[in-house]
Specification:
The chain has a seven-stranded mixed beta sheet. The protein has a three-stranded antiparallel beta sheet with strand order 11-12-14. By secondary structure, the protein is an alpha/beta fold. It is built from nine helices and 14 strands. The longest helix is centred in the last third of the chain and has 23 residues, at 341-363. α7 runs parallel beside α9 (341-363). It binds pyridoxal-5'-phosphate. The site of pyridoxal-5'-phosphate (PLP) has 12 residues, from α3.
Length: 364
C-alpha cells in the first residue's frame, strides 16, 4: 500500500523522513538496547531526548530564557481550563470568539473567572477575524485569549493584536511553527501536537515564567504550570514517545531551514490553492483575504451533491480526508508543514480535471 496525500485536520500528516527514522529506531534506540517506549523517563537516554527536543523548539521559535517550555498531556482542551486556573489574579479575562475552539475555551474559562467576549465573528459564521485595537481590551484583565488559526473555518489572525501590558494567550494548535511569530508578543502559547508537531498525546505550552506560581485553589497538582516547569516536564511520566517524535519533527524543520522556510513553503502551497479557487468557475473559497489560513483551506462546489461526489472521487484517487468539518460541510484541505508541495499540486490537478468533467456534463 502506497502512502496517500492526507489532508486531515488532525491527527495529520507527518514528515516522511521522520516516520522513516522512527521506524529505524523503533526497536532499539541509539545503543540503549531498547525502544524509547520502554525506557525510564528519568534515565539519561530519555532526558537527553527531552532536552534536545526543547532546545530545538527554542531554536525554531527563538524562545527567550524568560519563558518555560512545557511538554504536557490533555490536549489544547485541557489548556482551556489550565490557562484561567494559572493566570487568574484579579478575576477577569478578555476573550475573542472566532469559532468553535474559542467558544470551548470561553465556556471552560467561565468556570474560573469573569469572561468578557471582546469581539466575535459569529455574525458571519466565523468567516473573518474581528478588527481589534488596544482600546478594545480591558487594561485590568488578567489576560486576553485568542485562537490564532481557526482550524474549522480556515481563518487566520492577519496580525497579532496589541494588548498593551495585558498578557496575550494564544491557542496555536493548528498553526504553531507554520509562520514566524515573536514569542515576546505573547504571555502564553499552547498547542496540541497532533496538527503541526507530532503524534497526539502531547501538548506544548510556552509560558512567560513570571506568569507562573499563583494558582486557584484547589487546583490539582497536574494543572500547575510551575510544578511542570520546576520538574522539566518530568513531574509524572510524560508522553515519552510523542516527545521523542516531536523532537525529530523539530530537528527535521531545522534541517529544512527552520520556521522561515516553513512559512515560505506554506505561503507557496496555500497561494497556489487559493489562486486556483479564485480562478475556478465551480470551486469557491469560503474565506476572503486577509483572513485566509495558510494551514486549513475550506472550499465548496455549487451543490452538496457535487461536494459529495468530489470527496468520494478524491478519496479513490488517493487524496484523503478532504471532507469539511461537520459544522461547516463541503471540503477542507489541511496543508500543514508536512504536506509536500506535490500533494497540493496533485489536489489542484484533480480539482481542475473534476471541473472540466462537470462543465462538460452540464453542456450535454
Ligand atoms: C484541534 C484544536 C483544538 C483541540 O485540541 P485537542 O488537542 O483535541 O484538545 C483546540 N484548538 C484548536 C485551534 C484546534 O485546532
Amino acid at each position: 500500500m502506497a502512502r496517500v496525500f492526507n489532508f486531515s485536520a488532525g491527527p495529520a500528516v507527518l514528515p516522511l523522513p521522520v516516520l522513516e527514522r522512527t521506524q529505524a529506531e523503533l526497536i532499539e534506540y541509539g545503543g540503549s538496547g531498547m525502544s524509547v517506549m520502554e525506557m525510564s523517563h528519568r534515565g539519561k537516554v530519555f532526558t537527553g531526548i527531552r532536552d534536545r527536543a526543547e532546545a530545538a523548539l527554542r531554536q525554531l521559535m527563538q524562545i527567550p530564557d524568560s519563558y518555560a517550555v512545557l511538554f504536557l498531556q490533555g490536549g489544547a482542551t485541557t489548556q482551556f481550563a489550565m490557562v484561567p486556573m494559572n493566570l487568574t489574579r484579579r478575576g477577569k479575562a478578555d476573550y475573542v470568539n472566532t469559532g468553535v475552539w474559542s467558544k470551548k475555551a470561553i465556556a471552560e474559562a467561565k468556570k474560573y473567572t469573569q469572561v468578557r467576549v471582546v469581539a466575535t465573528s459569529e455574525d458571519k459564521a466565523f468567516g473573518y477575524i474581528p478588527a481589534l485595537t488596544k482600546a478594545d481590551f480591558d487594561p485590568e484583565a488578567d489576560y486576553v485569549h485568542i485562537t490564532t488559526n481557526n482550524t474549522i473555518y480556515g481563518t487566520l489572525f492577519p496580525e497579532i493584536p496589541d494588548t498593551g501590558d495585558v498578557p496575550l494567550v494564544a491557542d496555536m494548535s493548528s498553526n504553531i511553527l507554520s509562520q514566524a511569530y515573536r514569542v515576546e508578543d505573547f504571555g502564553l502559547i499552547y498547542a496540541g501536537a497532533q496538527k503541526n508537531i507530532g503524534p497526539a498525546g502531547l501538548t506544548i505550552v510556552i509560558v512567560r515564567r513570571d506568569l507562573m506560581g499563583t494558582i486557584l485553589p484547589p487546583t490539582p497538582v497536574m494543572f500547575d504550570y510551575k510544578i511542570h516547569a520546576d520538574n522539566d516536564s518530568l513531574y509524572n511520566t510524560p508522553p515519552t514517545f510523542a516527545i521523542y517524535m516531536a523532537g525529530l519533527v523539530f530537528e527535521w524543520m531545522l534541517a529544512e531551514g527552520g520556521v522561515a522556510e516553513m512559512e515560505r513553503r506554506n505561503r507557496e502551497k496555500a497561494g497556489l490553492l487559493y489562486d486556483f479557487l479564485d480562478r475556478s468557475e465551480v470551486f469557491a473559497s469560503t474565506i476572503a483575504d486577509p483572513y485566509r489560513s495558510l494551514m486549513n483551506v475550506p472550499f465548496r462546489l455549487p451543490s452538496e451533491d457535487l461536494d459529495k461526489q468530489f470527496i468520494a472521487e478524491a478519496e479513490a484517487a488517493g487524496l484523503k480526508s478532504l471532507k469539511g468539518h461537520r459544522s461547516v460541510g463541503s471540503m477542507r484541505a489541511s496543508i500543514y508543514n508536512a504536506m509536500p508541495l506535490e500533494g497540493v499540486q496533485a489536489l489542484i490537478d484533480f480539482m481542475a480535471a473534476f471541473e472540466t468533467k462537470i462543465k462538460a456534463a452540464a453542456q450535454v
